[in-house]
Design a protein that fits this description.
This protein is of the alpha/beta class. The chain has 23 helices and twelve strands. The strands form two sheets. The chain has an eight-stranded mixed beta sheet with strand order 7-6-5-8-9-11-10-12, sandwiched between helices. Strands 1-2-3-4 form a four-stranded antiparallel beta sheet, with helices on both faces. The two termini are about 40 Å apart. The model is unreliable at about 700-708 (pLDDT under 50).
């Protein structure tokens, strides 16, 4: 069947697909090339919401803003490609270890550095916003060809397909060059412009020449290869050390993610180790063998969480482990380790590999272990653009460590290794481990460019002193009198020193928020005050908080993986389509009943603990949890769709719904102070206010002729 490319339905579907695809592309790529965005993924999301809302508001402006879309993406892509060369990759406005821990941003701090970083982030924000303005304007124009609900359904379906396409490309481990090629082809399918051809050419050049050239410049002659996983850009370089004759010897490989040193594939084979002086041999071996030296005998069963490229697994095998369960979230890092690790630990028949989230494994495991290793699981990115949570935030909570303790044998030990730059991070790890294991941990510390902390606790080391464990690392005292709050499943912010929004976050959000609201409020000075839509604004704000809270709870049940992220967002889009169908059958008289359903389901999902549901089992608990935490989204979507059905100005409604979502993203940061559950109560209050105002405004009997 031949597709009519000029058919308005197809064009609206295609532009909606392009919008979601490019939104994911920018969020993912920025997090790699400008590292600060890895921890502020919601900033580019905010730019997308702002740009689209402005595009909707300016739908009927004579100036065609869409014609600049392709060239804007081209220049934004060039900026990301050459971010490392331009000195943008390691920008930071946060003092080292002061009020938050961000990996890959350890640069000398000064007020000038902070201003420079904020300036660049604001410039990138505006460039991204301008890109989405054109997309929003074109979408708004196409909306005018249909009834509101039909246009919205086409829009959502196109967005869903865009998510599926980008998720598929991530699954295939493609690089940004491929993403650009796909984006260019999609744009060309919509409209023929030279800028879209330039996108395709840039994507080809990046994939064939530019990417490898930049990597070779960054890592020099030691560079081996680059791979892209659904989480990171991964670079492999040779590790080199000087032997006893001061000659350079290859000693394995270093693994870098997003240009930051992450882990190593140490070559521990006897023929390699023999080239080095005895002290260096001991240092290289002990780095990974510490847990097994602490246990003191060959362990029957070992669990390694964050097995990565296999060096911890190799150490377990060298120490005589009977069997090793290796848990790793990133399939590409595992595959690289299986292929390149000189020790070939993943080829052993004593090793079982589990490619999944570590917390999910802990919750569903019934096996007992002599040694459980938390192997440098420090996260280098946020889990989702909807949240400030990182991929490891639910692994180091008190509940997670308690689940690990449950899996220990009577003489077992649990070991925790981590980058320990600020003192408060050492105190938090120590205190959390002590409370979870009901034992006195022993602490060790190794200074270096990145200081490493090592803690061991549980039955296997009861009544032992640090010197009895025969480690060369310096022992470090543990302060149990500190008042540092531990990380919990409701407040899983391991890298924040206390329950409050860090000043650095407040400054950044204030700058971005101010920049975002200026063009919106400028509309009031142009004599268009009547375009304000508080109902859609409130619904957008509440819906964003519902998404964030649902994402957090469902990641506890199903894991903090990119697949869970993609499935949840896709599920939300499907719910919106179902809500549109339901709204087509209803009228405004049903608003009170839907509002009551939303309030009750939201209250229920806020009161229910995800861990309680998880205790029911993976299938029963997961299914019930998905129903409980996603049900409020169904009611919220139905209310929006029903109101949208009767609107006289759909583009303005969408604009203010997106602006409300932008405000909701800002409110998400309150979870750093109040906890995740509090977001449900905040959403509850927002919806209660919206419905109260709506009922007061429409106090007379509702009819099909009433409009929003």
């Amino acid at each position: 069947m031949k597709i009519d490319l000029q058919n308005p339905r197809f064009q609206l579907f295609l532009i909606s697909l392009i919008t979601l695809f490019c939104e994911l592309l920018i969020i993912r790529w920025l997090a790699t090339e400008v590292r600060i965005f890895a921890y502020f993924k919601n900033i580019p999301l905010m730019s997308a919401l702002l740009g689209l809302s402005l595009g909707f508001i300016w739908t009927n402006k004579k100036k065609d803003l869409f014609k600049w879309t392709g060239i804007t993406l081209f220049f934004l892509s060039v900026m990301m490609i050459f971010a490392l060369a331009a000195g943008l990759t390691f920008l930071s406005f946060i003092n080292k270890g002061a009020n938050v821990m961000l990996f890959g941003t350890f640069v000398p701090f000064s007020n000038l550095t902070a201003i420079k970083t904020l300036g660049w982030m604001l410039a990138i924000f505006w460039m991204s916003t301008f890109f989405f303005v054109g997309l929003g304007q074109m979408t708004g124009k196409l909306f005018q060809n249909f009834k509101p609900l039909e246009a919205y359904s086409i829009n959502v379906f196109g967005g869903l397909v865009g998510i599926i396409i980008f998720s598929t490309l991530c699954y295939l481990n493609t690089n940004p060059g491929v993403w650009l090629i796909v984006a260019g082809l999609l744009f060309l399918l919509f409209q023929r412009r030279i800028s879209y051809v330039l996108l395709i050419i840039l994507g080809l050049l990046y994939s064939i020449i530019i990417a490898s050239a930049i990597a070779k410049i960054a890592y020099g002659s030691s560079f081996v290869e680059t791979a892209w996983s659904p989480y990171y850009r991964i670079d492999i370089r040779e590790s080199q050390l000087r032997d006893i004759d001061r000659k350079v010897q290859k000693a394995g490989y270093g693994v870098y993610i997003n240009y930051d040193s992450f882990q190593s594939m140490a070559d521990s084979r006897p023929q390699t180790i023999a080239h080095f002086a005895k002290p260096l041999q001991n240092e290289l071996l002990e780095f990974y063998e510490k847990p097994f030296k602490c246990y003191g005998k060959p362990p029957a069963n070992v669990l390694i969480l964050g097995a990565g490229s296999g060096s911890d697994v190799s150490a377990a095998l060298r120490s005589g482990a009977g069997h090793v369960d290796a848990v790793e979230i990133d399939p590409v890092i595992y595959k690289l380790g299986k292929r390149l690790n000189p020790d070939q630990p993943y080829s052993s028949d004593r090793v079982s590999v589990h490619l999944m989230d570590a917390r999910t494994y802990l919750r569903n495991c019934t096996k007992k272990y002599n040694v459980i290793v938390f192997a440098m699981l420090d996260s280098h990115t946020a889990f989702s653009s909807l949240s400030s949570l990182r991929t490891d935030n639910y692994i180091f909570t008190g509940e997670a460590l308690s689940e690990a303790t449950r899996l220990l044998t009577t003489d077992g030990i649990v070991c925790d290794a981590f980058v320990a730059i600020p003192d408060w991070l050492w105190d938090r790890h120590s205190k959390t481990l002590a409370l979870a294991t009901h034992s006195q941990p022993l602490g060790f510390f190794k200074k270096g460019v990145l200081p490493i902390g090592f803690l061991v606790a549980s039955p296997g080391i009861v009544n032992k002193a640090p010197k009895q464990l025969n480690l060369s690392w310096a022992s470090r005292s543990i302060n149990f009198d500190n008042e540092k709050v531990i990380a919990t499943d409701d407040w899983p912010f391991l890298f924040l020193p206390e329950k409050k929004i860090p000043s650095s976050y407040v400054i950044l959000i204030a700058v971005i928020f101010t920049a975002a609201t200026i063009p919106i409020f400028s509309q009031f000075h142009q004599g268009v005050r009547n375009f304000l839509n508080w109902e859609m604004f409130g619904l957008g704000m509440g819906f964003m908080l519902l998404e964030v809270r649902s994402m957090a709870n469902l990641s506890l049940l199903f894991g903090s993986t990119w697949i869970v992220n993609s499935v949840i967002i896709s599920a939300v889009m499907l719910f919106i389509l179902c809500a549109n169908w339901l709204a087509s059958k209803l009228n405004l008289n049903h608003i009170p009943n839907l509002a009551l359903g939303l309030i009750l389901s939201l209250l229920l999902s806020t009161l229910i603990n995800a861990n309680t549901l998880a205790g029911l089992g993976a299938i029963e608990g997961g299914g019930l949890g998905a129903f409980v935490f996603l049900l409020p989204l169904v009611f919220a979507s139905s209310i929006f769709s029903l109101l949208f059905k009767y609107t006289k100005n759909p583009t303005t409604c969408l604009a203010f719904n997106l602006i409300g979502g932008l405000f909701g993203i800002c409110l998400e940061y309150l979870s750093m102070w109040l906890g995740i559950a509090a977001l449900g109560y905040i959403a509850l209050a927002i919806y209660a206010i919206v419905f109260t105002l709506y009922m007061l405004k429409h106090s007379q009997m509702f009819s099909d002729e009433q409009v929003v």
